[in-house]
Amino acid sequence: MPSGSLSINPGVMVTAINSANVFEIVLKGTLLNQGMLFFSPSSKMRIDSGGTYIHNSSVSSSVLLDACSIDSLSTFIYRGNGTLAPPVSLSNRTYGHLVFESTAGNWSRTITGLIPHHTSLNIHSNVMLINNLSNSMTIRDMILNGSLVNGSGIQKLSSQD
């Protein structure tokens, strides 16, 4: 069951310092990152079932994702607006529910690299994703209110896990 929420405001930096064989952050509720969330080399974060991480920052999410264990029933949101298009890191990531949303205005992002199979994908209105992935993107469930444009990549819709 979700257990709370935390917001990291713009301009605020939070660093998780490593411990021995434990998760420094276990996310069961909602974490809204509008600032900078960093992890020391062996620090880890787990987004549990029902947990939601919202990346609403111009700071790359790749370091955070390298430190993350993401449950298949969790939600990872890239949130942008007319002036902020957050850097997206899909390469070799495993997501549960992957969401792209806009708080105001349009934003777009070209996605490249490799993406795991069977991702639930939700693209809200005012968001455009351009697929230039180097392999096919297998989408388990898709809600498309924005745009998914096929560049050099391939989308494959599948109801199979």
What fraction strand? Answer: over 45%
The count of strands amounts to 16
Instruction: Tell me roughly what share of residues is in helical segments.
Output: under 10%
Number of helices: 1
H/E order of the elements?
EEEEEEEHEEEEEEEEE
Report strand order across the widest sheet.
Answer: 1-4-7-9-10-12-14-16
Residue stretches low in confidence (pLDDT < 50, at least 5 long) are none
The main β sheet shows up as:
8 strands, parallel
Span of the ends, CA to CA: 24 Å
Helices and strands: which structural class? mainly beta
Overall geometric form = globular
Describe this structure as you would to a colleague:
The protein starts with a strand and ends with a strand. The longest helix has 5 residues, at 62-66. 3% of the residues lie in helices and 48% in strands. It has one helix spanning 62-66; strands spanning 5-8, 13-16, 25-27, 30-33, 36-39, 45-47, 52-55, 68-70, 75-80, 97-102, 107-113, 119-123, 127-133, 136-144, 147-150, 154-157. The radius of gyration is 15 Å and the shape is globular. By secondary structure, the chain is mostly beta strands.
